[in-house]
Amino acid sequence: MRHQAAKCINEAWRFHLGDLPPSDVMRAEGQTWSGVTLPHSWNALDAMALEEAHHYTRSVGWYVREFESPAAGQRLWVEFEAASQRASTWCDGVCLGEHAGGYTAFTVELPRQPQESMPGESLTLALRVDNLPDPDLIPSDMSDFFLYGGLTRNAWCYTTGLRRLASLRCETEVSVELAMLTIHGELDAPPPRALRLSARLLSPQGELLSTIEGSITEAGFELPAHRIVQPQLWSPAQPVLYTVEVTLLDGEEAWDVVTERIGLRFFDFPESGPFLLNGEPLRLHGTHRHEDWAGYASAVPDALSRQELRLIKEAGFNFVRLGHYPQARAVLEACDELGLLVWDELPWCRGGIGGEHFRAQTQAMLEEMIKQHYNHPSIVMWGLGNELDWESKHPDSSDEKVCAFLQTLHDFAHARDPQRLTALRRFEPGASIVDVYSPSIWSGWYRGRYEDYEAALNEALARYPRLLHIEWGGDSHYARYSAGEHINAEIDQESDHAERPGIATGVGGPARGSRDSDWSESYILDLMEWHLQAQLRTPRLVGNAQWAFKDFGTPLRPENPIPYVNQKGLLDRAGRPKALYYLFQSYLATTPMCFIEAPTWAIRTGQRDALQRVRIYSNCPQVTLFVNGRDCGERRRDGTAFPAAGLVWHVPLCLGANALRAVGLAADGQRVEHTISVEYHEAATGPGAAFQWQIQPAKTAGGEEGQQVTIQLVDADGHPLIEDRRRVSFELSGAGRLLACLGIAGGSSVIELANGRASITVLTKEATTLLVRADQLPETLIPIEPGDR
């Protein structure tokens, strides 16, 4: 719901990290204060810092901004889309209220100035925000993602008359032939006298369909139903949205105007499936989204969120689980507009269950999520929890108590929203409580071989009547590839592929992909393609969601190739697609595409004239490969063939530069092409001896100019070593700074080599020296000049 008078107030905030008495905050002066623009997080960079003293600040932050006092007869409201993780609001030294939970919105009213105040006198609003550890506040500190601190989403202000429209609920009863829309809502307080409401309904094309009016004498209201004959139904293929506009009037004076966009659809998920949308079966092809971006933490600008959702749609997905918390308004609006079905989720992630305070706060978050997100047609499920079998910091927690509270939340969700389903992932004792359940199945990564995925899946399908396979896949290090063996251990053949406790980040236990594979994109291409093929030939599987769409930060994984980054994404943390993204396009997208593995596989090695494997991922029925202009033959795509749906060639490459071009011929005759460059070198004959380097101009996301330094490990004869995975570190000796806390290749000061390579961006206006260190190698000193090429 948007207030028509609302203005974005992301600018002109002052920020101080650390706690202060409220009386000191009102002045907002001194060197410890800085100007910031929202969305803002004080963990935007330090979550990736490796020095313990500077890593992942859990603290208090104060935000201060000035506002003009409202005119006589007006009320001034400020809405915060999120304050992570807890906030208290103050105006001119007076506490206005508190809000617990970092992922739902809240609104405060700024008081009117006393009559004796000078005209135009300003009001000072301050927020005390903290992300301090708190076992009674979900999500748990045991969660596999950072609990970033700050005002991490947009802020808005607007004025109203003596009352405002505090909430709007658009209830629908929909069929193919007819839709009924009933508008419910609440004012912020009972009206001082009888007021009038006017509700207009506009078609997706902007035509006025109907206007309904009514009087209001109490805070709550319900308007007569709008009747829509032959409604335009919302779906992934046609995400059409109607507009509802409600005006609150005192006589002819408008006190408040709000708008909401709604979609008309109906759905069902009978036991054993299929999932039905508007009466038609729909296979759910899904992924997951974390609110996390390189350089921003969870303070992701709306434009980047919308960019990410568009990439999700273009990959061929029609379903997304927002893990593991309610996400920004722009995210849900994009899902509505793009036609992405949503599993929205309460942030009860790990950590067991606490006492009454824990339960009250958790249920309040569920109520806020349902109330604030109810009108989004994309949402079809309310997720009530994730991995609730995890150990707990609450000494009295037990599975029995978790189940009892889960039942309370399930009943509460259905009482507040009878149409949508409740859902849960990985808590076996609670599987029968919710409507939709996903067990843990991590074939080929945390447990078992991916070749046995189908057996594990069918076993789960036999146990759970409404099953979605939520979370599957594996980590891959950006730009690491291999055509050889990927796992250096024998993995047990079994059908139970549930993640065992402690396995995700542990070093003990049985052989598994997460510990014993090469973490290459090539291995995860195989793993994910095997899953996709098995899912597509299993009609009983209603849907799934791969984990996760983009790499994201986590405090639990400092040992990863990029420290503190969960690398299971199809994109890296800065939104750069891995080869995996195009695998999904080749199976799920309808727009013709062609992709050669891979532009980031820049160097290959081998013997002269040895054949090199080339895999192409395409949804075209026919694909031809050209190497250095030579036609290497056509292949026909077979969606049951493995790997690459049969689009595999073995061709010789010449020493030096090679141009590879793939030409796909779509069923309608359209041609699509993809070209990459590959350097081919003789294979190394000895161990790594030194680093060679290249320096190229680079620009940061903010437009700052610098130099990107790329290092390549070579043997004593200068031959590249492309299987080497050792960890390297970058440090400057002299002027300048490194782009080093982004959690991406090219933006991390410590990182594992990918095919013997790594890079870092240096920002300097003076001559400086880059130091490169790696185990069993001498320190490498690379001179950098401003404008160095």
Question: How does the SSE layout of this entry go?
Answer:
Elements: E1 2-3, E2 7-8, E3 13-17, H1 22-25, E4 33-36, E5 60-68, E6 75-80, E7 86-91, E8 94-100, E9 106-110, E10 122-130, E11 155-160, E12 165-174, E13 178-187, E14 195-202, E15 208-216, E16 220-222, E17 226-229, E18 242-250, E19 253-262, E20 267-268, E21 276-277, E22 280-281, E23 284-289, H2 302-314, E24 319-322, H3 329-338, E25 341-345, H4 356-373, E26 379-386, H5 399-416, E27 421-425, E28 436-438, H6 453-463, E29 469-470, H7 513-516, H8 521-536, E30 543-545, E31 552-553, E32 565-566, H9 579-588, E33 594-596, E34 603-606, E35 611-618, E36 622-627, E37 630-636, E38 648-652, E39 656-665, E40 671-682, E41 690-699, E42 705-714, E43 727-734, E44 737-738, E45 750-752, E46 757-763, E47 768-774, E48 780-784
Parallel strand pairs: 23-24, 23-30, 24-25, 25-26, 26-27, 27-28, 29-30, 34-40
Antiparallel strand pairs: 1-19, 2-11, 3-4, 3-5, 5-10, 6-9, 6-11, 7-8, 7-10, 12-13, 13-16, 13-17, 14-15, 14-18, 18-19, 20-21, 21-22, 31-32, 33-35, 35-38, 36-37, 36-39, 39-40, 41-42, 42-46, 43-45, 43-47, 44-46, 47-48
